[in-house]
Specification:
This protein is mainly beta. It is 3% helix and 39% strand. It has one helix at residues 45-49; strands at 9-13, 31-38, 60-65, 78-87, 92-99, 104-108, 118-123, 137-138, 140-144, 149-152. The longest helix is centred in the first third of the chain and has 5 residues, at 45-49.
Length: 153
């Protein structure tokens, strides 16, 4: 979530690989930017990141507020990129999940610098919306400090 943590488990859906960055550094708490790329075939991250439209020419984009989830059943054959900032209210180890319809990745920076983001959680194939127990969902953890802001993609 981009908004403050209220629990140690954070749910993130349909986030894809790190690339060029367009989220403003002034992004408000509780907001994330989602870009959609229509006409992407296949089920791998490389199908999106290797497409000529990615990352500079999304088909559509929208601001997500509150719960960080992309729309379900939006279309067939598309990819997306979601990015923003996490604002930790609790110090400690946090668990991150990502459930995507085919492959997905969640990247997190140890600070608010997008260039420092590292891969934290993945979906290795298909998983339904919020299907955290699916064998394709591989959660990851990161230690966050209360009061700090962290870039995610």
């Amino acid at each position: 979530m981009v908004k403050d943590f209220t629990t140690k488990a954070v749910t993130v859906l349909a986030v894809v690989a790190i690339a060029s960055l367009s989220v403003p550094a002034s992004a408000a708490m509780g907001e994330a930017w989602v870009e959609f790329y229509d006409g992407i075939g296949g089920g791998n991250i490389a199908d999106l990141t290797g497409n000529a439209a990615y990352p500079d020419s999304p088909s559509a984009a929208q601001l997500i507020t509150g719960v960080l989830e992309s729309p379900t059943n939006r279309a067939d054959s598309y990819g997306l990129r979601c990015q923003g900032y996490l604002h930790a209210t609790e110090t400690g180890e946090h668990t991150f999940f990502i459930a995507t319809d085919d492959a997905g990745e969640f990247w997190l920076s140890p600070d608010d610098n997008p260039a420092s983001a590292v891969l934290v959680a993945v979906t290795n194939g298909w998983a339904g919306s919020r299907d955290w127990t699916n064998g394709n969902v591989v959660p990851g953890t990161a230690t966050l400090t209360s009061g700090h802001r962290y870039y995610f993609l």
